[in-house]
Amino acid sequence: MSSEAIKVAIIGSGPAGYTAAIYAARAGLTPVLYTGGEPGGQLTTTNDVENFPGYPEGINGPQMMVDLQKQAERFGTTIHYKVVTAVDLKSYPFKLTVDGTEEILAESVIVATGASAKYLGIPSEKTYANKGVSACAVCDGYFYRGKEVAVVGAGDSAAEESTYLSKLCTKVHLIVRRDEMRASKIMQQRVLNTPNIEIHWNSETDEVLGDDSGVTGVRIVNNKTGEKKELSIQGFFLAIGHKPNTDIFKGQLDMDESGYIKVKPGTANTNIEGVFAVGDAADKIYRQAITAAGTGCMGALDAEKFLAAKEAEVA
Fold first, then answer.
1. Domain 119-238 in CATH: superfamily?
2. Does the annotation count 139 as an active-site position?
3. What is the pTM of this model?
4. What confidence category does residue 2 fall into, taking pLDDT thresholds of 50, 70 and 90?
5. Nearest alpha carbon to residue 299 among 280, 278, 282
6. Which of 48, 140, 156, 206 is catalytic?
7. Which listed residue (88, 99, 139, 212) is catalytic?
8. Candidates 136, 169, 280, 283; catalytic one
9. Res. 283: pLDDT tops 90
10. Which end of the chain is more exposed for a tag (fewer CB within 10 A), N or C?
């Protein structure tokens, strides 16, 4: 175990983690960032980011993460391509286990581990990732203006994404596994009242179809009759939920029933003083790069305030 505690340990390397690192480094806190198993997070799976302010021509997702990393390093952030595999937040300074063996001490911790979109598990999802398959309508819907698309899901997210896409696309096929939706009544009503949304009840995705240019269709199967049908689409959107990457914090940080870390409203503060949660690990509503970056800033400022108060106590 390293004898000296680092001031700010940042776990995760998406927009939230890197923004936290930029602010913490500029405050002279010499942060150490652990990238996790997927450096750059979800944005590394997105080719074109067109809704992040400051990029009038858009930017490639992986390139944006490289730029953020360089900016964080420029101000003195140390980046480790390692995974934090366990944490002990019940003693202070906090103990982090890295890559299963190395133990380090941290005076403050910023959790920026993000969330992962849930997929159906069919091979064609990966084949056509960034070529018509997406897990974020708000991020990618703009690319399908005037085209037909399909959405998979039955909850509020699926209803919201379908109605959002209905304003951009000529037709939205909503693929629902059962004969009813799980979405709230008001969201269901919006879907049912939108003329260019067609619901395919009792249906599951058999295969996403496409060619070198990307997605061209989807084959669905009726799980009651076994009948298969092909829909001609250019975009295939998954809206079956996200899983926050917060398992290592269970039993220590307060979470909701889905595993999202609870923070005190208007802050990045968790139930443990000195531990802050930012980005998609604590946000199941917005899930955008810009909101993640914003909370990353909040986490760094909250950590700076916490550390200043600790130093004042010692003095």
1. FAD/NAD(P)-binding domain (3.50.50.60)
2. yes
3. 0.83
4. very low
5. 278
6. 140
7. 139
8. 136
9. yes
10. C
